[in-house]
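Q: Could you fold this chain for me?
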Amino acid sequence: MFEKFFFNLREKGINVSLTEWMTLHKALDEGLIDNFTSFYYLSRSILVKHEEDFDKFDKAFIETFTGKEVITLEQMRELFEQYPFEHIEKILALKRGEYDYDLEELIKKFKEQLEKEDSQPHVGGNRHIGTEGTSPWGEDGFANLGISFSDYHNTGSAIQIARMRKYRNYSPDKTMDIRQLQVAISRLKMLIPEGPEEELDLDSTVRKSSENGGDIELVFRKKKRNRVRLLLLMDAGGSMDPYAHLVNLLFSAIKSRIRDLKFYYFHNCIYEEIYEDIENRIPLKTEELIKKYSEENYHLIIVGDAAMAPSELMNLGGAIEYWYYNRKPCKYYLEEFRKNFPSSVWINPENPKVWDKIWTTAIIWGIFPMFHLSVEGVEEAVKYLIKKQGVKR
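A: Sure. Below is the predicted structure, expressed as structure tokens.
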């Protein structure tokens, strides 16, 4: 059963480590779990590292502990003979508050059920021996406690808690909200030693003390602080209007989590200039922007649908504004961004199924790693940025 639980968790995307798994077993050995509900809460607290995995845990828990094979009356008789009377007596004693039977009558009723000729299994009953029912003498039932031959009885309350699925909205496959995006963005970190040397460097202390023949020599180091830097470029207006709310959520999440954030706007594609305001009134030279922020090791995120006329992407003078003439094609600047920012991604709100069917999107996808504007997509984009962090050009 535990092996099945482990693999169900991994299948749902919860990467349970061996250390965590052994910690759970140690908790069992120490007697920290006295019923199935406490097993549910303790195992969740040990095995789940991120709040968005709570719903995955509930799914794995339900699949593991409600998929048990139905026990027959014959098997029940055999198990009853194997278990000491004190075990049965203790369980039934805890049941008395829910039923009008005293302890002796409960034992008598249970034995009567075992002596019946009909040994066909049933599920969900409220009077006879079976599984997943509400009688006090079933196996794996929904009553608070009863005769059970599992490692854990009292399945019902814990399973009911899991079935409530209170954390469904925490899952990345649900509707995107700012809290989920904040969690995803907060994983983007660049820890840099900074400030006075006030943190104890244990490894260096041990090494220096050993070199001194055992005399303690404390070695201190600078604390590592998160100094991640991010350059955010956003397509505004036109075909991006239907996605304005999603882009705003992403922007708000990033702004709340990244202290060193620089953001600019463009329309459809990037040319000689990029803009500090969404109305394209305050320009900044694109080549100057590339030089400045690439030298300071900024991550780069570009948000846009990558859909435009082929001439906008490939041609001189392809910009659609009649008053604007681009002397270099958009593709040139995109390639310059990619070359100078190894830690860069493109986030696209369009359905990924159509990316290879839109000519300009397919071209841009070939320049930048492209991820969908969803919680899962942003998480994957952040993982990529972290992987490429510090890569030399």
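A (continued): The mean pLDDT is 76.
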